[in-house]
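Supplementary material to the annual report.
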Amino acid sequence: MNNAAASRMRLFGMIRKESLQILRDPSSIAIAFIMPVVLLLMFGYGVSLDARHIPLALVVEQPDSTSASLTGAFRESEYFEPRDFETIETAQQAFDLREVFAIVWLRNDFSRQLLSGNTAPVGVIVNGVDANQARIAEGYIQGVWQAWLEAYMQEQGLELHLPVQMEPRIWFNAAVRSRDFLVPGLIAVIMTLIGAMLTSMVVAREWERGTMEALMVTPIRINEMVIGKLVPYFVLGMGGMLLSVAMAIWLFGVPLRGSFWLLVVASALFMMVALGMGLLISVVARNQFVAGQISIVVTFLPAFILSGFIFEISSMPDAIQVITHLIPARFYVAILQTLFLAGDIWPIILANSAALLVMMVVFLGLARRKFTKRLDA
Amino acid sequence: MDSAAALVFAGVSKTFHAGARDVRALDNIDLRIQSGLVTGLIGPDAAGKTTLMRLAAGLLMPDSGTIQVLDIDVVQDPLKVQSSVGYMPQRFGLYEDLTVQENLDLYADLQGVDPAQRAGRYTELMHMTGLAPFTARLAGRLSGGMKQKLGLACTLIRPPRLLLLDEPTVGVDPVSRRELWSIVYRQVREQGMSVLLSTAYLDEAERCDEVVLMHEGRRLGQGTPQDFSAPMRGRTFHVTAASLGKRSLQARLGALPGIIDAIIEGEQVRVVTDTAGLPDLSRALPDIDDIQSGAADPAFEDAFIATLKGEADATPPALITPMTPRAMTRAEAGDVIEVRNLERRFGDFYAVRGVSFQVQRGEIFGLLGANGAGKSTTFRMLCGLLPVSGGEVQVAGLDLRYAAAQARARLGYMAQRFSLYVDLTVMQNLRFFASAYGLDRARARQRINWALQAFDLTAYADSDSGDLPLGFKQRLAMAAALMHEPEILFLDEPTSGVDPLARREFWQRINALAEAGVTILVTTHFMDEANYCDRLVIMAEGEVLAEGTPADMKARFRDDTHPDPTMEDAFIGLIMAHQQDRDAVA
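Predicted assembly:
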């Protein structure tokens, strides 16, 4: 048998063995297919960064037709779920108990002041504990109030004198659904999970169980071992990716505006980076528990927090923004969000893909160098 | 280069760095392994056997020296060596989630076996190992002996020129051990293979063509087993005294000057002297009037002990202080442990089934069996660590199902693996266990002092217990289990991996405890240790095959071919009978 044939036989032997192990191990299947589904359902349905159905207290000290028309505007808004209170004291109690998130307070002279043409103050109290939510609520209250005022003035035959009129248009995610940008970003987290965490633990398991030692004392070459390990997990990771994309498009109705094949190519690139990290961790750790811990801390958590998947990178402190450039998921999340929501914006996709390519070379190169057929290396 | 050598080590040293400590695993080793022979690498734990094997397989780099394997320099060309040797690491290197056939396929692919030749080779190997009916079974579902044979089959899939086996027989039942040896010898005879095999079982030395004796990273000797035992001729004897129990006799003999080793062998005490001839026993032990002695054939173990004792300092072991008299006064007759129809299921798998026995106060009671026979599971149930699935267990008169905690306060348990805190010192460990057992301050101080003295640990009081030699770790674990002066002591594989000298000392302590009235239950897979027990059960596949005294058990298998059967003969006979019964049912 010539060398090439022997090498091919060893490589296919490794791939077959690795694939059989994946199929027999319920935890691999769980991480590759069940975890993505759970995460997608959780983020798709459960987590929402939009402010909708904000519990709002309406305090009207002297109800009349004017105040009724204003409170009616709040009631019609999908952003609020108003409750009526007679006095500001009872509303404050509900506020303290966190039963309502904000209070809109119309004093007893509200209608009179408005009709007499004076300034009619509306008291607004917003719970500022969650600063983000507070700003959104405040904005929405103002929006409702302004829209109502405009309509009111028109009704009265009066013109509202505003020198500048804002006409906002929201691009890419016109409905401002947070799901549409969370779900694509989640794919990066899922692939990190499969590529880095699962792979690092599986290779570490070979060290732990002593099978690596037996494997090493065979004619197998390091390259064959590395490729034999990577191929099945690459396929598994891409499978997880396709499942996530399918769920994103058909279950959550996230649009895919860019090219599907571009998405596949970029994902393959990121998968190789994740596998490189996983392999590197397993070579350094050689113990399932340690490998699991390291991969959570250095791959999974950063992919979650520092990738721009949930938290906007440009609003992070400068120092953290610099650090995010070390997180491969950051570049992939940028590609994902662009491809899904904006389309094939080549400058963004090429720049981020180039970064991923560099990281792939670095991680796979390091892993290959550290991976020797020696126990004391 | 000499073509008759399969393996040559020249001035090889290897040091490992463990934190701040340097461990010298191999110290300037020179070695030549003849080709076409079975060479045994024999030595206690931490002798450097595994390191030597790994160096030969190219898995480690030597710090200094050269290693030639089949005339190839391993450091220069490890891949070429790995293409011509077969290596089975300690845990057989099997994928437990693959079937027998899939494991074979993998290794055939890796070793480049021509697909056209595979079918024939598989049939041959499966026939040889008796695994043919199990090719579709997951390797993880095989018994220890079957795993060992599959591991061997995988390394033999393309017959290597040199076969390296690292402790292939540890914890495997004697029947499988015998089969492994016959497979190995067949390879040597038929294929002209060279074999290097490491073992901690001294009785296996005699099956080797040549033996390399190792201790603490150095080579103490090399030669045929006869080369080792021949100089011992005239220094080995059997001694009996009907009026005295074998354990008491052993203790008395062991304390005599001029006697370097006294162990129980069958129903007699085997004695090794430092010079030819036995001291005059009637003068040395005048109170034993029926003492009888005769010459015994020297064995490899005698030479091993004599060599190692020569290495160690000559001070005799410390006098063993037994338990404080409080424990001794508790001598009431009767059964302290009663087990009826004990059963433990894990899913549909019976780890223990239909186990019944009684243990009397002050007895040393043994559970003998291979790994996976259900010994440790039985033990854990007796200690109240694992709930029983069925049957009754009474320990110290308490039903474990209802009063596990109360029963536990009256028993001591030493787990299979060193279960103390490795980053605490000896003293801190003892203090912790004293407080865990709720001893008051004065008692605790008294017991800790007792432990340090009785177990010779005073010099190590402030050392981290993780840094202790294995034998001392074992002592510390036993001391911790005895802090609260339990009535019953459970020892789970206490001597596994401990060198023969430490094993002897350990049994002396156990004997002393039994003399002081402590009931002792011990599990072991060393057949010869069964002779130390008053009574024992032999277990296999979760069931008790036989119960009785060691003498009874052996007597059942006395026949023309085995006029003086050993425990191993008895064990093999029982296993064979058990398998025949099962096959008859099936």
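The two ends of chain A are 32 Å apart (CA to CA).
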